[in-house]
Amino acid sequence: TFVPARRVSDISISPSTAAAQKARDLRNAGKDIVDMTVGEPDFDTPETVKAAGIAAIKAGETKYTPVNGTPALRDAVMHDFKRRLGLNFKSSQICVGGGGKQILFLALMASVEAGSEVIIPAPYWVSYPDMVIANGGKPVVVKCAEEDGFKLNPATLEAAITPATRWLVLNSPSNPTGAAYTEAELVALGEVLSRHPQVWVLCDEIYDQIWYTSGSAQTISAVVPAIADRTLIVNGVSKSYAMTGWRIGYAAGPQPLIDAINKLQSQMSSCPSSISQAAAAEALTGPQDFVTDSVAVYRERADLAVARLNAIPELSCLAPDGAFYLYPCCAGAIGKTTPSGQVLKSDLDFVIYLLEEVGVASIHGTAYGMSPYFRLSIATSTEVIEEACNRIEKACSQLK
Ligand code: PLP
């Protein structure tokens, strides 16, 4: 029989993937399910982007590219970081991989040793702790209270840092909460980090264009230039341009780290798809109205859903700054009894109750390291969101 390596047995399959699969299975079994687990845009990839992919195929751009990505895509990324964040990178300081996820994994693989600590603010994206463990490191989860907007505060950061700390992960706007750091908050974190030169900052900004509040998303190296030489900014086209299946992500940062990531990629995948790279370059350099239009739609949905959820006595929900998720608190439902006589003891009990009683699929907060909450995706139509809210309201009203 096959016995997996430690690095595999120590990690688990992403709970969001598992929840989405459960929703699909129930639907295939004929159940009427409203699926709020989806972690990708419900929009199609823009036509201009698809056309660039097709043109690349026809032009014979169907071979290996440089390990670190095509010059055209790296230039597009470089200009995007300059235009939106005011950051100047050389083309050689950009690396391209098969999704932001692969780049994050490679960055950890390139830097984490046995015993290296990686500070992960909770609620966190489910993949960070397992990515750290798979690379032999130690996730150090620090809870960030709803009262702090689910964000890391300087004192908590200071207390979590040890001589073994290798990275701080900053995911802004966040999956699952939609919370984003303001300039002042980044300055305060930067102040702590400037005293601890061993700590690098892994900025996952994959949702930074899906932005609802005033101004635009901020990045720590633009606000605190003194730590730019130990900051990696990870982004990609999956979420902003509805390109999850094309699998293109990228990062910009200090040359030695980028070189290490490229070295690993050269032995792992050689390069991401040439066709997808051509499409991603078009996404970044072509018309940007898809981003503007889709964000306006997400914003309307977020406003609608937040208002509906906050009208349910058992729930409360912070308005997100960006991304396309909501992370409502379900403390008001915990301890109550369902019509079948079950006492809800946890957010997992609550999401199972929603699934079984009213057919709403969502993900329990424990999976994101913070309870009692649950995650709802709003990357689905207004009608589906209305229906989900009606059903959640009904399920909550039946609790005693
Ligand atoms: N980071 C966060 C916070 C995410 O939610 C995701 C996708 O769900 C990713 C990174 C990776 O996206 P991709 O690999 O499609 O670029």
UniProtKB/TrEMBL annotation:
It comes from the Bacteria. CDD domains: AAT_like. Keywords: Aminotransferase, Pyridoxal phosphate, Transferase. It catalyses: L-aspartate + 2-oxoglutarate = oxaloacetate + L-glutamate. SUPFAM superfamilies: PLP-dependent transferases. InterPro entries: Aminotransferase_I/II_large (IPR004839), AspAT/PAT-like (IPR050596), NHTrfase_class1_PyrdxlP-BS (IPR004838), PyrdxlP-dep_Trfase (IPR015424), PyrdxlP-dep_Trfase_major (IPR015421), PyrdxlP-dep_Trfase_small (IPR015422). Belongs to the class-I pyridoxal-phosphate-dependent aminotransferase family. Pfam families: Aminotran_1_2 (PF00155). GO terms for molecular function: L-aspartate:2-oxoglutarate aminotransferase activity. PROSITE patterns: AA_TRANSFER_CLASS_1 (PS00105). Its EC number is 2.6.1.-. Residues 31-392 form the Aminotransferase class I/classII large domain. This is Aminotransferase. Its cofactor is pyridoxal 5'-phosphate.
